[in-house]
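Weekly sync, protein design subgroup
Attendees: M.S., D.O., the rotation student, P.L. (late)

Item 1: inverse folding check
M.S. brought a backbone from last month's batch and wanted to see whether the design step gives back something sensible before we order anything. D.O. pointed out we never logged the input encoding, so this time it goes straight into the notes. Structure tokens as presented (657 positions):
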């Protein structure tokens, strides 16, 4: 039975039996419910429901109530609220209304919110709002706060521009089913800061208003998480402090939508990583969107690395411009490093009403971007924005848009681009690398119909592949000391070969790899073996400039057995428009790469099958069977059975061009 004692005796009894910490400035009105109705006066020790800013509602077991679940079926403005473990505050079953509980102690330091039990919206629809005016006193949760399916829970500050800080140590704030949780409000109420515990959204929706700072909080989102700012001249931010973690497998929308004219003081909407110990793991979608064009140089939508951090991205992170005046960006702070790992994508794209000039990845002095193996950065915009010092790419950076992707590191420093992954251009907008010290051991690739432009700096490739199926337009010389140069497109600038490089000409179309500039072999150093691998009888290397050699080299040609070369036909393997020093090279063919029964024609050129004439290196084949000219297809089959070994013919030819 509940204790229904006169107030003086009740106070004495509580001093003896209750573990409750008494707040002398607030009068405690204690739950002693025989029914679940908050509004029934006899369910409270004071004989009436809590209803004043000097009263703290206490829901615990000190008066041994018969009912542990309190149905909040009205609105109330009180000084404080305490709920003990094992007790629940909820709305009545079937409630569809909007209930508001305001905590507004007459003295700020007397503010009191302490939930060790459960606060659940309940009902079948409608909402429950917890509005805390001041957080100078106690504001903490070690229990459960939940937006149940079909309902909305609002936790907010009641003051404009004054946040509440909720200490959530060992507590959980979550949605259930299709529940909606609003942190803060879009109607002028101010930020909610949370410290400790967890914030969970399995399949519901979280709407965040203004600034929410999370310190040592584990955030899990499998539903929808919105930070959508439509206000004028306000900043909305999801900020990760301490050891906070954000694990997203759902959809997050970080949007700045300009509905009208804004002043130049308009502020950004953002996710901030503000601790080196904070982290983001994404297997879903995170959208950063700027929409509307109110002012030039004003507010932005930003993914901010205020501290060095690694984002594990196995999903998609989008930077989407829907504005011609305001930025969507990723910003790396001075001396910090942003690292992306995983198998996902960071996509920079132009939406309806947007501009490629308003998409950027930028930073402060000595900022570094690391794109790890398996991860892709693709799209259009400015990558580096003449601010990021170094870009280390072990993954893929892919210009696949009809707008241009510009890689532009800090020109005021000796910035570096280290590529051990793939730099690729396939879009009609192309890929422009403005400057920097570029070192390649991976793949630099330009597809047919696309252009990859290297405007300045230096380019050195010591290994890997340079694949030009489109146009590789280089202003600085390409210094290549190892690896493969391949494709059926063109390289417009000079190329210096200073190592054992392999050339491959072939593909589904022209089978010709063109060097519009000069092709220089071993300007310094020792002689090298240069391999040429051709997969078609029309395969050829064309040089529009000069071909020169500092030392004598061995040019070794290898042919695909399916290349369908014919006997007694002259094939041009290298064609040079400018001056050439082909006579200074030694030429060879591995007969193992020829169709069986083919040999160099000793009646051609200088008697070894090779001829340098008019800037062309030419070759002709004959049959092993003396005096018989076999048909290319029928005779090849009959000769295969008779050839038992691999023959190698080489001879140095010096013939005046």
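Designed sequence read out in the meeting:
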């Amino acid at each position: 039975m509940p204790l229904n004692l006169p107030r003086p005796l009740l106070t004495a009894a509580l001093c003896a039996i209750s573990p409750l910490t008494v707040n002398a400035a607030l009068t405690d009105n204690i739950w002693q419910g025989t029914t679940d109705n908050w509004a029934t006066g006899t369910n409270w020790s004071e004989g009436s429901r809590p209803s004043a800013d000097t009263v703290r509602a206490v829901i615990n077991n000190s008066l041994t109530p018969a009912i542990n679940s309190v149905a909040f079926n009205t609105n109330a403005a009180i000084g404080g609220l305490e709920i003990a473990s094992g007790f629940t505050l909820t709305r009545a079953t079937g409630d569809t209304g909007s209930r508001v509980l305001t905590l507004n102690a007459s003295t700020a330091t007397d503010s009191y919110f302490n939930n060790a039990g459960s606060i659940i919206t309940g009902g079948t629809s409608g909402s429950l709002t917890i509005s805390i005016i001041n957080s100078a006193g106690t504001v903490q949760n070690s229990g459960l706060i939940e937006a149940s399916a079909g309902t909305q829970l609002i936790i907010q500050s009641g003051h404009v521009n004054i946040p509440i800080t909720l200490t959530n140590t060992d507590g959980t704030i979550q949605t259930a089913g299709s529940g909606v949780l609003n942190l803060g409000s879009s109607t002028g109420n101010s930020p909610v800061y949370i410290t400790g515990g967890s914030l969970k959204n399995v399949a519901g929706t979280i709407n965040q208003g203004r600034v929410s700072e999370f310190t040592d909080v584990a955030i899990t989102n499998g539903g929808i998480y919105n930070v959508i700012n439509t206000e004028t001249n306000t900043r909305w931010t999801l900020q990760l402090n301490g050891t906070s973690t954000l694990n997203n497998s759902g959809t997050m929308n970080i949007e700045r939508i300009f509905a009208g004219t804004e002043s130049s003081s308009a502020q950004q909407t953002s996710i901030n990583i503000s601790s080196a110990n904070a982290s983001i793991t994404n297997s879903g979608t995170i959208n950063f969107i700027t929409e509307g064009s109110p002012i030039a140089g004003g507010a932005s939508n930003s993914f901010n690395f205020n501290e060095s951090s690694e984002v594990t991205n196995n999903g998609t992170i989008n930077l989407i411009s829907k504005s011609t005046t305001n930025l969507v960006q990723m910003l790396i702070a001075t001396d910090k490093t942003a690292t992306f790992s995983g198998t996902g994508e960071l996509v920079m794209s132009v939406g309806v009403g947007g501009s490629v000039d308003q998409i950027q990845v930028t930073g402060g002095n000595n900022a570094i971007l690391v794109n790890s193996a398996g991860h892709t950065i693709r799209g259009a915009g400015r990558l580096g924005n003449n601010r990021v010092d170094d870009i280390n790419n072990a993954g893929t950076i892919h210009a696949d848009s009809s707008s241009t992707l510009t890689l532009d590191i800090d020109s005021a420093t000796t910035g570096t681009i280290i590529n051990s992954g793939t730099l690729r251009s396939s879009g009609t907008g192309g890929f422009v690398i403005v400057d920097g010290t570029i070192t390649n051991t991976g793949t630099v690739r330009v597809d047919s119909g696309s252009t990859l432009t290297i405007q300045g700096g230096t380019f050195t490739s010591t290994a890997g592949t340079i694949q030009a199926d489109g146009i590789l337009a280089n202003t600085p010389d390409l210094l290549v000391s190892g690896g493969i140069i391949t494709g059926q497109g063109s390289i417009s600038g000079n190329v210096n070969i200073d190592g054992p490089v392999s050339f491959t000409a072939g593909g589904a179309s022209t089978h010709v790899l063109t060097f519009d500039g000069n092709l220089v072999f071993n300007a310094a150093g020792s002689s090298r073996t240069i391999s040429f691998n051709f997969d078609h009888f029309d395969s050829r290397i064309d040089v529009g400039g000069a071909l020169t050699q500092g030392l004598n080299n061995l040019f070794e040609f290898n042919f695909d057995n399916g290349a369908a070369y014919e006997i007694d036909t002259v094939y041009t393997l290298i064609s040079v428009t400018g001056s050439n020093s082909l006579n200074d090279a030694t030429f060879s063919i591995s007969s193992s790469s020829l169709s069986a029964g083919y040999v160099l024609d000793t009646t051609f050129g200088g008697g070894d099958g090779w001829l340098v004439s008019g800037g062309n290196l030419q070759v002709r084949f004959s049959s092993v069977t003396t005096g018989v000219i076999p048909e290319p297809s029928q005779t090849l089959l009959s000769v295969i059975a008779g050839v038992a070994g691999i023959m190698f013919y080489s001879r140095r030819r010096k013939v005046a061009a």
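Discussion: The chain is about 5% helix and 45% strand. The CA atoms of residues 574 and 617 lie 5 Å apart.
Action: P.L. to compare against the previous round before Friday.
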